[in-house]
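Each field is listed here:
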Amino acid sequence: MTEQIKSAVYKTALGLSAICLLGAGIFGTLYKTPFPARLLATACPILLAVGLSGTPFKGFRFTICIIAAVLAAMCFPERFLNFGQINLRDRRLILAIVQMVMFGMGTQMSLNDFRGVIRMPKAVVIGIACQYTIMPVVGFLLAKIFGFPPEIAAGIILIGSCSSGLASNVMNYIAGANLALSVTLTAVAQLLAPVFTPMWMKLLAAEMVEVQFFGMMKEIILMVLLPIVVALLYNAVRKERLERLHRLMPVLSMTGIIYFTAVTTAAGRDHLLKIGALLFLAAVLHNALGYMLGYWAARLCRLDQNSCRTIAIEVGLQNGGMASGIAGVLGKLDTVGLAAAIFSPWMNVSGSILANYWHKHKLKDA
C-alpha cells in the first residue's frame, strides 16, 4: 500500500469516526432509537484508532482501542460474555490469556534489565518502596472515602497493589527520563508481585473480600512470574530465530488486555451504570496522587530530578492486565475487576500527557 493510499484511508477513517459520533448523538437523543446509536458509538473509537495512525497522535491508538472495548461491552454486553459454547469468563481461559500477556511482556525484557539493581541500588530501593506502599494505601483511602461496595473497593486496592507494567517504560522513554532505572524497576516489581500484592490485599482488603495469602501468591506465580521466567529463557536462546513471533508478542499482549477490558466491562455493566462516574473520579485521583507522591517521595530521598520523574511514572502506572487476571481467577471479574477496566484507559491517557509534557520540558542534567 502506497503512502498516498494509506493517507487517504486514515483521513477517511477520521471522517467516518466524526460522522459516527454525530450519528450516535442524533439517533440517541432525537430519534430515541438505541440500537443504531449504540452501533455508531461502538464504531466511532474503532475508526478513530485507525485514523490516528496517520497523525502525530498515533501513540494513543492502544488507549482508543481500550475505550472502544469499554463502549462495545457497555452497548452489547451479551456479545462479550459468551462466544458460542465458550464462557469468556471461564477461569482457565482467563489464566491462559494472562499468561500469554505476561509472556509477551517478558519477551521485551532481558536479564540485563536487572543490572540496574547493582548500578543504582538506592534509586531502585526507593522506587520499589514507593511502588508498593503509596498506591495500595492511596487505593484503600479512596475506597473508604468514596464508600464503594466492598468487592469494588477491593478492586481499587488490588490495582494499587499490582506492579507497574511495560507502559511505564514507554512513557519514561517519551519523557526522556531515566529509562535504565524505569526498566529495572519494572522488572524487579514484577518479580516481587507474588509477595507484595497478596500481602497488601490481606492487610487492606480482607474485610471486603476473602483473601487467601498463599492461594493468591500461587496464582500470581502462575500468572506473572512463570511466564516472565519462561520469556527470559526464550530471549536467551532465541537470538535471530523466531523473529516474527517476537514481533507479534506485544500485539498479542495488547489484544489480551483489550479482551480483559471488554469482558470485565460486560460482566460489571450494571455496576458501572450506577457508579461508573464515581469510579472514574477515583481513577483520576489515584493516578494523580501516584505521580505526585512518587515524585516528591523520591525528591525527599535526594534523588536527581530525572530519576524522580521516572519513579513518579512507575508509581502512577499500574499493571491493569495483572489486576484483571487476578480478579478473573478469583471468579470476581464483574466486581473486583471493574477498577482495572476503568483505571487502565485513564492511566494510558494521563501517562501520555505527562510524558509529553516532560519531553517538552527536559531537564538540563538529563
Observations:
- Residues 88-360 form a domain with the Na+/H+ antiporter like fold fold (CATH 1.20.1530.20).
- The longest strand covers residues 82-83.
